[in-house]
Structure formats: C-alpha cells, structure tokens
Amino acid sequence: MSTNSEAKTLVIIPARGGSKGIPLKNMRRIGGQTLLARAIESAFATPSVIDVVVSTDHPDIKAEALAHGATVIDRPAEIAGDTASSESVLLHALGTLDVLPQITIFIQCTSPVIDPADLQAAITTVASGAADVSFSVVPDHGFHWACDETGSAHAIGHDVARRPRRQDREPRFRETGAFYVMDTEGFLDAGHRFFGSLALARVPEEHGIDIDTMADLELAQWRLARTTPALGLDVDALVTDFDGVHTADTAYLGQDGMESVRISRADGMGISLLKKAGIHLMILSSETNPVVTARATKLGIDVAQGVNDKARVLKRWMAERGLDPERVAYLGNDVNDLDPMSLVGWPLTVADAREEVHAAARHRLATPGGHGAVREAADLILTGRTATNQSAAPSHLAVVPAWAN
C-alpha cells in the first residue's frame, strides 16, 4: 500500500461504444456536455490526478476523449463486449503502461456528477494508507424488502413491528458507481476492485445519479437542466438565434403586413464590447425578415437567415474562421437551436427558453430574450477572458466545473 500523500495517481475511464440500453451512451449529453467529457473534466480538476486514460473501441469516443485532453487506449474486441468486466479493462489499460501509478482510479461516465473535492478526499484516504480502496456511496435510509421463492415479502435489515423515523435510522450505503480509488499494487494482486481494507467515500445524495436506461438519462437531464452557474466563459465566438434571443419572441404587425420588433440597447452595447475584444459574432436565424438584416448591419456582425439547417451553416462558418467548436458559445431558445447547440462547447439558453432546450444547455442565463440576454452572455465572455488572461490558466478553469451542479 502506498503511504505517500503525493502518490502518482492515474484515472482510467472505460467507455465502449456498444451499449445496448442506450446506444453510444457515453456520448449522450447532459448540461451541454457528453457524459465522457464531464467525467474527464472532473478528473482533470482533481489536484492529485496526473493523467486520464480512456479505454475505448469506438472512433467517436476516441475523438471526444482526445479533444478533452485524455490519453486513449484502443480496447481489443475480446474485452469490448457486454460480458467483459470492468476489471478486465482496467488490467488491460495498466498492462500497456511502462510505469505504473501508485494509485489507480476507476471512473464511470454513467455517473455525470463527480465533485473533484470528493474524489481528492478518497485519493488522500488511500494515499495516506488509511485504506486500500475508497469508493463513492450515498446514504440510503429506506426500508428494504425482498421476496422468497413463494413470492412472500419479508423485511431486510429492519423490524416490521418498529418503524423509526428517518433521522432515527442508521443508514445503509449504496454505491454510486462514480469512482473507485485503489492502491494499484493491491488491485493487480487481487484482480478485482474490492480488496484489503475498504473505505466509504460519502458523496451528496444529489451526486448519486447513475445512468443505465433511457429513463435514467431523461431524469438526469431534467434534474441537471439548470446546469452549472458559469463565472465566465473563455470562448472565441458567440453565435445567437434572433427571435426569442435578441427579441422577446414577439413582433409588432402593422396593417401593411410589415413586422417590427423590440430589442434591448444593452444587447447592442454587449455586442460592441465583444467586437472590441476580438470575439467572432454571428446571428443565425431560420426566419427571413428584413429586420434581422437591419439589426445585424447596425451591429456590424455576420448574419445568416432563412436557414433550414442551422448546424450545417454553423459548421461552415466555424471552419472558415478556423474556430475550435469547443471554444464557441451558441445562445438559443427553441427546438431549432438544438442541433447547432450540440456542436459547440458552450450551448447557452435565455431564461425563458423551452424546457427541452434548457436541458441541452451548459448554462442557463438569468435574463429572458429581448431583455438583455445577449448582454448577459457578453458579460460572461468578457469576464472569462479577463480571468484567463490574468491567471494564464487553462480555459476550463475560467468556469465552475460541470460537477458542481
């Protein structure tokens, strides 16, 4: 067992592409990020972690892992099927290394909320020699029951004649599946994750989400729909819808059939400040209306309207300017924004966006469309760039990490 508090620590994330319950489950998005990206981000935000390895058999997962700074190990077919154990993947990954870490951490993407502080505490437990393994759990105060071979129910762990209050019951603990921190030497000797002395790493109940079915995924998306409050966005571009973002999604219709809209002067100032900061800007609208052109012309920014395929146009615009999609923000409000939102690193929504659009966002603004939402987004971007310039820190440190929901 390691007794060094500075022990070299490696995270291994198994992420195969053949999930049957939810096809390509690890690439599904919650809070505007894939499950894989959330896991990698949380791992890298943990002080003791020196590297993150993703073991996969799928090219899209490999590309996503590399894009977020992880090292990728190609998983052989014999351990990529439904029956392959997690331990077999961990052992294979460790077997490819020239130098073994003192501590190995097994993280599962299917737990979308991991607080690096909780993970660091578990690492410290193992590194200090207090335990060989520490794994995440949440308390469970429920009354448990089981059925015998006849179908009759019987109590497990409690007296049916005595029903103490929740606060008077000793909790059991349920594995969240989020992380398992292990002394590497002990794991290699045992060949499984539960060996030697075990320590429970208690995490908040709201972090105990585990995604196995579509119902789990939908519930997680609903629970995390408000996403992480951002302190600042370090991005190079902002793309916005028009109706419902620059406007309140309403229009004035005159007797001559001409439309006019109400916009916020604060948004105009926000755009001006972003231009001065060198941020690329575009309005991307599915509507065709002279008022959109007039507004974009006055603001002096790119515009594309009458667009049926927003994602295609956005891809081309980013490519022409050499933009990294992970460093682009998109501000939307309705279902036709979902596809372009899925392409960028920072999908944003105005406060009054549709709920299914909020569920796809990484951050929900406090301001409704047409009332200064664009200015709020601009302020976040300017704050993020200032913080990054002052600290010279990686861009992901300019925001509250995804685990802090």
Write the layout of secondary structure elements.
Elements: E1 9-14, E2 29-30, E3 33-34, H1 35-44, E4 49-56, H2 59-67, E5 71-74, H3 86-95, E6 103-107, H4 116-127, E7 133-140, E8 144-147, E9 153-156, E10 172-183, H5 184-190, E11 198-202, H6 214-223, E12 237-240, E13 252-253, E14 259-260, H7 265-276, E15 280-284, H8 290-299, E16 302-304, H9 310-320, E17 328-332, H10 338-341, E18 346-349, H11 355-358, E19 363-364, H12 373-391
Parallel strand pairs: 1-4, 1-6, 4-5, 7-11, 12-15, 12-17, 15-16, 17-18, 18-19
Antiparallel strand pairs: 2-3, 6-10, 7-10, 8-9, 13-14
Helix pairs in contact: 7-12
The radius of gyration computed from the alpha-carbon positions, rounded to a whole number of angstroms, is: 24 Å
Determine the strand fraction and express it as a percent band.
15-25%
Provide the low-confidence segments as ranges: 1-5, 392-405
| Category by helix and strand content | alpha/beta
For the largest sheet, list the strands in their spatial order: 5-4-1-6-10-7-11
Gap from first CA to last CA:
34 Å
Key terms for this structure?
disordered C terminus, 405 residues, 29% helix, 7-stranded mixed β-sheet, single chain, alpha/beta, 21% strand, 6-stranded parallel β-sheet
Walk me through this protein's architecture.
The protein is of the alpha/beta class and 405 residues long. It has 12 helices and 19 strands. The chain has helices at 35-44, 59-67, 86-95, 116-127, 184-190, 214-223, 265-276, 290-299, 310-320, 338-341, 355-358, 373-391; strands at residues 9-14, 29-30, 33-34, 49-56, 71-74, 103-107, 133-140, 144-147, 153-156, 172-183, 198-202, 237-240, 252-253, 259-260, 280-284, 302-304, 328-332, 346-349, 363-364. The protein has a 7-stranded mixed β-sheet, sandwiched between helices. The longest helix has 19 residues, at 373-391. It is globular and about 75 Å long.
